[in-house]
Amino acid sequence: MTGFEYTLQCAVLVLLVVAIPFTIRLERGLSGLRRDRGAMDGSARGLGEAATAAEATLRRMRITTDEGLRQISERCLAGEKLRDDLRYLIERADSLADRLDGLVRQVRPIVAEPVVPIRAEAAAPPEAPARSQAERDLIRALKLAR
Q1: What gap in Å lies between CA 60 and CA 66, rounded to an integer?
Q2: Furthest-apart CA atoms within the chain: distance in Å
Q3: Model-level pTM?
Q4: What burial letters (b/e) apply to 126-143, b meaning 16+ CB within 10 Å?
Q5: pLDDT for 45-64, tens place per residue?
Q6: Interval 57-110: pLDDT, tens
Q7: Of 123, 116, 115, which Cα lies nearest the Cα of 139?
Q8: Which helix (H) or strand (E) holds 15?
Q9: How far apart are CA 76 and CA 33, in angstroms?
Q10: 8-47: b or e for each residue (b if 16 or more CB lie within 10 Å)?
């Protein structure tokens, strides 16, 4: 072998010696990646399970929301019926109050007339028309109000 070949082989040998720590370091990094790959696969499986659980939860939430909306709409319909009934009753009460007010105004002039005392020697009083209890109560209330 010539000097040139020896020099060339020594250079290759030096380069190989220098490359050995780099290869050891690279091999350690690759073995770490292989170890972490198992953990990564496990976490990917865990992520898939979490996604499946989240989808199931969303389905249950949608069902619950639909049920709640159905119940709310039923109660709104019942409330609207009650509102209409109350409106009708209020209108009837207003008309009855107006009629009662008219009757009270008719009775006031009769009650407001001065009472003439009856003499003891006068004959029996003329027969009063039969009145209902409500009329008697109304007249008594009007007398007390004066």
Answers
A1: 10
A2: 176
A3: 0.39
A4: eeeeeeeeeeeebeeeee
A5: 888 889 999 999 999 999 99
A6: 999 999 999 999 999 999 999 999 999 999 999 999 988 998 888 888 888 777
A7: 115
A8: helix 3-112
A9: 62
A10: eeeeeeeeeeeeeeeeeeeeeeeeeeeeeeeeeeeeeeee
